[in-house]
Design goal:
By secondary structure, this protein is α/β, with parallel strands linked by helices. The chain folds into 2 domains: 134 residues, FAD/NAD(P)-binding domain (3-Layer(bba) Sandwich); 123 residues, 3-Layer(bba) Sandwich (FAD/NAD(P)-binding domain). The chain has 9 helices and 23 strands. Strands 5-2-1-9-20-19 form a 6-stranded mixed sheet, with no helix packed on it. The longest helix is centred in the C-terminal third of the chain and has 19 residues. Belongs to the NADH dehydrogenase family. Its EC number is 1.6.99.3. It is an enzyme of class 1 (oxidoreductase). This is NADH dehydrogenase.
């Protein structure tokens, strides 16, 4: 029996499962999914879990059920490409014929002293739970620092403001303005929301050190009661340990078929893959659609297309609490209630399509 092994149950591999099961898998092929949890976690909503405005149940859905699918729960410690084997922390070793690496990312601390030790994270559902316990356990008037004003930092800071009106929130942004790579209208809308809701946006910041109860921004010391780090990502350690070719951000270089250039049986999907676009759930799903087409062609011994179609993304949606939002779609800016309803609708549709 041929084994297709999927590492990680994120957006990319979830899409692969839904496209191959139940009727698009050759009879001589089985799928083994390895993930630390028995369910698919919607990482784009971890900010709400950490802020306490969404329950654990709301940010996960079940994996599909099939007698062609085996789900193995465990922590992946090593990927042995030469042996076509994946090693788990319990000593189990799983072999594969085809492998899709979709293990996602973890925080990148940019060598800032104390950042890995004294900050909280929203990169996994487990870490988001820990962040929730800390943030919701803070006393009134406590100061929370959110380092990094990308989409995750913006959504966390705004959702936390709605959850805890009594907290003082500081959002640290390295740029002179929020979302500087997008139209100024979008930046101004987000900044105005933060101003109106008493979230202090610290522009042109440079966090040089983190200590318990203290942040260092340039030469300034800022007392804090908790810090959440959203200032950069990198592939998880088992992927970094492969020592493969990578781009400047550490993401693994792949060919147009999303395979390792040196191994056509290994695919990389999602945050680990080096692509010209920023990592996102949408990008992982579009990659997965192409990987499924490549796998089916390979299994049928068909020639692969000379050139794969270019991935086209629709844009992005962001929330500012439960009532306001912002979007950048087809080079158009949408802000306010409509943008928030659009994001809620996309989330509802995702849950519906995924059972």
């Amino acid at each position: 029996m041929r084994k297709l092994v999927l590492l990680g149950g994120g957006y990319g591999n979830m899409r692969i499962l839904l496209r191959l099961l139940p009727n698009n898998l050759p009879l001589d092929t089985e799928i083994i999914l390895i993930d630390r949890t028995p369910f698919h976690s919607m990482k784009t909503e971890f900010y709400a879990l950490a802020a306490g405005t969404a329950s654990d149940h709301e940010v996960r859905v079940d994996f599909p059920e099939s007698d062609r699918l085996t789900i193995v729960n465990g922590e992946i410690t090593e990927i042995l490409l030469d042996e076509k084997t994946v090693c788990l922390d319990n000593g189990e070793r799983i072999t594969y014929d085809d492998l899709v690496i979709g293990l996602g990312c973890e925080d990148k601390y940019h060598s800032v002293p104390g950042a890995d030790e004294f900050t909280y994270s929203i990169q996994t559902i487990g870490k988001s739970r820990e962040t929730y316990k800390t943030l919701l356990g803070l006393p009134a008037g406590a100061v929370v620092g959110v380092v990094g004003a990308g989409l995750s930092g913006i959504e966390l800071a705004s959702e936390l403001r709605e959850s805890r009106q009594d907290l003082k929130i500081k959002l640290f942004d390295r740029s002179p303005r929020i979302l500087r790579d997008f139209p100024e209208r979008l930046s101004n809308f987000v900044k105005k929301w933060f101003d109106n809701n008493n979230v202090d946006v610290v522009s042109n910041s440079n966090i040089t050190k983190v200590e318990p109860k203290m942040l260092y921004n340039h030469e300034e010391t800022i007392p804090v009661d908790a810090v959440v780090w959203t200032a950069g990502i990198q592939p998880v350690k088992p992927v970094r340990d492969l020592n493969l070719g990578c781009d400047t951000t550490g993401r693994v270089l792949i060919n147009q078929y999303h395979q390792l250039p040196e191994d056509e049986h290994v695919y990389v999907v999602g945050d680990c893959a080096a692509l010209p676009m920023a990592p996102s759930a949408q990008l992982a799903e579009e990659q997965a659609e192409q990987i499924v087409k490549v796998l089916k062609a390979v299994w049928r011994n068909e020639a692969l297309p000379e050139k794969m179609p270019e991935i086209q993304l629709k844009g992005f949606l962001g929330s500012l609490g439960k009532k306001q939002g912002f979007a950048y779609l087809a080079d158009r800016t949408v802000t306010g209630r409509i943008a928030r309803l659009m994001k809620s609708g996309v989330l509802w549709m995702y849950k519906w399509h995924n059972g």
